[in-house]
Amino acid sequence: MEDYLERLKRGSLKLYALEEELPADEAARVRRVFIERETGVALPAIGAYTIPVDRVAKKNCENLIGAVQVPVGVAGPLAVHGEYAEGSFFLPLATTEGALIASVNRGCSAIMRAGGAEVRLFRDGMTRAPVFAARDVIHARGIVDYVNSHHDEITAAAESTTSHGKLTGITTLVAGTSVFVRLEFDTKDAMGMNMVTIASARAAELIASATGARLIALSGNVCTDKKPAAINMVMGRGRTVAAGVNLPDALVREVFKTDAATLAEVNMRKNLVGSARAGSFGFNAHAANIIAAIFIACGQDPAHVVEGSLAVTTVDPVEGGIYVSVTLPSLPAGTVGGGTGIATQQECLRMLGVAGGGDPPGSHARKFAEIIAAGVLAGELSLLGALGAQHLARAHQKLGR
Predict the structure, then answer these.
(1) Which CATH number covers residue 372?
(2) How far is CA 50 from CA 68, 108, 215, 345, in A?
(3) Does 116 share its domain with 154?
(4) Active-site residue 6, yes or no?
(5) How confident is the model at residue 393 (pLDDT cuts 50, 70, 90)?
(6) Phi, psi of 389 (to 5 degrees)
(7) Annotated active-site residue in 97, 153, 259, 347
(8) Annotated catalytic residue: which of 153, 301, 347, 391?
């Protein structure tokens, strides 16, 4: 080891090159010792992990030194009645926020007692939006006209790069001499960003060659990836999914210690009016909490919580109670690729019955999206109930300090 450490110190060996000379576990150990000596900080906990790192070092994390462990708890059982998810599920939630899992668990209990959450997907499409430079607005119009009249050719070019992805939609937007082409793909069980990026590159080459447009960037931010954006709220990105449950008045009183009218008013004044007054893109109580916890546990890209939290929670009065629903317009989620192959994350996906590719393709990712939506619904119910009963501070004082 000392030889490697000395070479790292001299700069004749780079941190990222250790895997070229050592097995992944040993490379991580050498790199960790080097960082310990350089920073003067011992890293025994980071160096204690159970995941096999051969795949992780190659596909998930460069310059690996170990792992940060996030506590994982479960909420449930949660009854889900979807097109792909049908049954009771225990939700794996990775979090350091005390009271979160207890809160979701209470929402799960209410949903179970109400007969389960109804869940449906409305659209399914991952996007990438190259930006092209036109000479002038006349040229920009020509580029748009070409795209609109050559869908078949653009589709063939894009789909030539993948055996799974299918181009399902093309939208053009213009700002002066900038032309954005938003390409939408069905990515089956993958979240699909790598797939659509590669496919969009081939499509962009064709558009540039045919129109004389200059391809400026493969992502022009109209996608929109990992940033809050109205276009994702309106048009959707990833999986668009909604979950709802009918709650009788008596159940609201028994579980949440408040009444249906109060819960509805809290939602209206907080989630709808308050969010509107704040200029928020998300009209919900804390959807990001549940999405982040499931994403971390199940190997999703945590940055996509930004899009996933663009959720709308509604409460409708119905005879004898209320109907509460959440709509997630932009939920990038997958069951293959990315972090889903890491051993601990794979176990969490197996808990939900969605690990790997589904049969037919795409069914596992859609089932996963339906379960996430039902989990968000459980979280929204519990927090609205706690606010309505004036219990929020008490719960955090007991569980979250």
Answers:
(1) 3.90.770.10
(2) 11, 31, 44, 12
(3) no
(4) no
(5) very low
(6) -90, 0
(7) 97
(8) 301
